[in-house]
Amino acid sequence: MQHQHPLPTPDDIFAKLNGGTTFTQIDFADAYLQVEVDDEAKELLTINTHRGLLRYNRLPFGVKSAPGIFQQIIDSMICGLEGCAAYLDDVIVTGRNIEEHVANLEALFKRISDYGFRVRIEKCNFLMPQLLYLGNIIDATGRRPDPAKIEVIRKMPHPTDIAQVRSFLGMLNYYGHFISEMRQLRAPLDDLLKKNVPFEWSAECQDAFQRAKDVLSRPTHRSMG
User: Fold this and answer.
1) Which residue range or ranges hold the Reverse transcriptase domain (predicted)?
2) What are the φ and ψ backbone dihedral angles of 119, each rounded to 5 degrees?
C-alpha cells in the first residue's frame, strides 16, 4: 500500500496565500477516518487482535502511506480554487478583501460537500486578521516565525551528541528563509555530521550554536510569496 504523492512545502503553501488580508482555517473531523478504502486496501489493513482478525474500512492513522493518500485527495478537492491551500487536513482560505474571501470560502465549502467531508465548525477560525499556521504567524503583511517555537529553540541546551545536532539543525533549517547568513552560521555544526568525524563540541561549535539562536531570536518577517 505504498503511495508516493508528495506533501506540499511550506513555501508552496504560503505562495498561494500571498496577497490575502484575512484568513480562515478549516478543521476536519477525524480527517483520515472520513476516507473509505477499497477492498484491496482493506486486505492490507487487517490486524490481529484478542478478538480475532479485524479489518479497517477507513483510512487509519499510523499507516505510512496515509498522509500521501489523504494529501492527494485534498489537493484534488481544492484544485482550481482561488486563495486556498492545504497541508493534509489543515486547510486555509484567504482573499484580497472580505468579499473575495467569502466567495473563496463558499467555493471551498461546496467542494467539501461534493467530496462528502465533514468539518468541525466549533474548531474552525473564520475571517481572522492573523493565524498560526505551519509554525508561522501569517497576516496581511506576510509571515514571521511562531514566537513560541523560537523560544523553544532559544532555550535549548547545546547538543551532546550527533542526534541532538541533527535535531537542532532541523529546527533551525525550518526557519532558514528568515536567516540570510544561514549557511555560514551552521557550517561548524554541519562539520560534526561528516562521516568518520568524532563528536567534539568545540568553542567554534558553541559560538555558531549561540549566534544561530541569537539571529533567529531577532524580530524577522518576510512576504508570503
Assistant:
1) 1-138
2) -115, 160
